[in-house]
Amino acid sequence: MSDPFPTGDLPSWLDQIELDRQADDLVRAGAAGALNRYRNMDRDWEDLATWDGVALHQPSLFLAGAHDASVSWTAAAIAAFPTTLPELRTSRLLESAGHWVHQERPDEVNELLVAFMRENLGAPRAAT
Predict the structure, then answer these.
(1) Are 94 and 63 in contact (CB under 8 A)?
(2) For residue 45, what are the contacts with CB-CB under 8 A and spacing of at least 6?
(3) 3-class DSSP state for residue 112?
(4) At 110, phi and psi to the nearest 5?
(5) What span, in angstroms and rounded, lies between the C-alpha atoms of 127 and 125?
(6) Which of 90, 99, 91, 89 has the alpha carbon at shortest distance from 66?
(7) What span, in angstroms and rounded, lies between the C-alpha atoms of 77 and 125?
(8) Which residue, among 115, 14, 19, 4, has the nearest Cα to 63 in the 3D structure?
């Protein structure tokens, strides 16, 4: 397997402390939880077959990194958003970002999330 950081440099959004923390978590807990998500995909297709082709009518937001490989292999699904997500309010591909947009561009992601919630979910209710 090729070295993802051939120069030894980490990307600007990941420092050594965070990398060590994530590595420690992986060593401690393992990857079973994350891998089980993929192991269960066939069951998901079976369980969700009833809703195949049904549009989602809730206000929706789509954020992805322009360099996320999954954007290319889900291109047909993204192109179908006008039909499958008729209430899609915002769709944004973040330039120079990959799969981990929340880590790579946290300020921009948070601004987009907060704006979406304010515009589409209403103001928070006062505590009673």
Answers:
(1) yes
(2) none
(3) helix
(4) -60, -40
(5) 6
(6) 99
(7) 35
(8) 115
CA dihedral of residues 68, 36, 40, 60 (deg, nearest 10): -40
pTM higher than the cut 0.90: no
- In the structure encoding, which two tokens stand for residue 73, read together? 């292999």
Beta bridge partners of residue 94, listed in sequence order? 65
Please name the residue that has the structure tokens 């082709």.
53
- pLDDT per residue as tens digits for the range 33-83: 889 988 999 999 999 999 988 999 999 999 999 999 999 999 999 999 999
User: Minimal CA–CA distance to 81: which of 70, 90, 69?
Assistant: 90
